[in-house]
Design brief:
It is a single chain. The chain is α+β, with helices and mostly antiparallel strands and 240 residues long. It contains 9 helices and 11 strands. The protein has 2 domains: 132 residues, no CATH class; 73 residues, no CATH class. 37% of the residues lie in helices and 18% in strands. It has a 3-stranded antiparallel beta sheet. A hairpin with a 6-residue loop joins strand 4 and strand 5.
C-alpha cells in the first residue's frame, strides 16, 4: 500500500463482496489528475466519469462492484478529506419557502451500516407464495440503468429488475414485475429502503430569514467535488 493511501472501512462491512479482503481496501485524497476528470463531470455522464475517478483513488476493490451506499460514503469521504467538511449549501426553507444558504458539516452526517444478519440474495415471499431473491444495486448496475435511460426508456421497473437475483435475463425479470401486484413490488422497494447503508444526507438547519428550525434531505451535489464561488473562497481563506 502506498504511503498516501489510507485504510477505510465501508458501511457494507464488505458483507456482499466475494474475494475482497476488507483490510486491503484503501483510498487517497484527490490530486490534480483527479480534478481534471472531476471538472468534466455532469449529471449526464456522472456514472462513467466518476468511475474513472474511483479507479484512480481506490485500492483493494473494483469500483464497479461497490454498492451504491458504499460509493456515496466514499464520495463524502473524499469531499471531507480533500477539501474540508463544511460547505455552504442553498436550500428552500420549509417554513417560509424562501431560498436560503446554510452551512453544512458533512463530517456530522450519520452513517448507517448493513446489519450483521444481512445476506445476499435477500429472500422475500410474494403473495403467491413464491420466494424472490433481491440484491443490492452496484455501480455496474447503475451504469446499465443510465444507458437504458439514455435510450429513452422508462427505467422504473428496469431498476428494480436489475436488483433481482436469478439467471433470467433482465427482460424476463421486467415482464415478471409487470404482472406482479403493486403490493409485491412494494416488498422489493422496501428492501432497498430498509437496507440502505452509507451517509444519511439529512441535516438540521436554522433559517436565517425566519428563524425556524427544520431538517432537509441533501442530495449529493457535483459542486461538492469541485468547490466554486463562496465554498471556494472559504477553502482558500486568507491565502489568496
Amino acid at each position: 500500500m502506498e504511503s498516501n493511501y489510507l485504510p477505510i472501512k465501508l458501511p457494507s462491512n464488505c458483507k456482499v463482496y466475494k474475494d475482497v479482503d476488507p483490510s486491503k481496501i484503501a483510498i487517497r485524497t484527490f490530486k490534480g489528475r483527479d480534478e481534471k476528470l472531476i471538472a468534466e463531470l455532469s449529471y449526464d455522464n456522472f456514472e462513467k466519469k466518476f468511475l474513472l475517478v474511483l479507479k484512480n483513488v481506490l485500492q483493494g476493490i473494483d469500483p464497479e462492484k461497490l454498492t451504491i451506499g458504499d460509493r456515496l460514503f466514499l464520495m463524502v469521504w473524499e469531499v471531507i478529506n480533500s477539501y474540508g467538511s463544511k460547505s455552504p449549501v442553498e436550500i428552500v426553507c420549509s417554513a417560509c419557502f424562501k431560498p436560503v444558504t446554510i452551512d453544512v458539516d458533512l463530517a456530522k452526517l450519520e452513517v448507517t451500516e448493513l446489519p450483521d444478519n444481512f445476506v445476499e440474495p435477500w429472500m422475500v415471499k410474494l403473495s403467491s407464495g413464491k420466494e424472490l431473491g433481491i440484491n443490492l444495486l452496484r455501480v455496474a448496475d447503475q451504469l446499465k440503468i443510465e444507458d437504458y435511460e439514455k435510450s429513452g426508456k422508462n427505467v422504473y421497473l428496469y431498476r428494480l429488475a436489475t436488483s433481482l437475483a436469478g439467471e433470467d435475463t433482465v427482460w424476463h425479470k421486467m415482464e415478471m414485475l409487470e404482472d406482479l401486484s403493486v403490493k409485491d413490488i412494494a416488498l422489493i422497494r422496501a428492501f432497498h429502503e430498509k437496507y440502505f447503508h452509507g451517509p444519511i444526507m439529512e441535516v438540521e438547519y436554522t433559517c436565517p430569514q425566519c428563524g425556524e428550525h427544520g431538517r432537509v434531505m441533501l442530495p449529493f451535489r457535483l459542486e461538492f467535488l469541485l468547490p466554486f464561488g463562496e465554498a471556494l473562497s472559504r477553502l482558500a481563506g486568507d491565502a489568496v
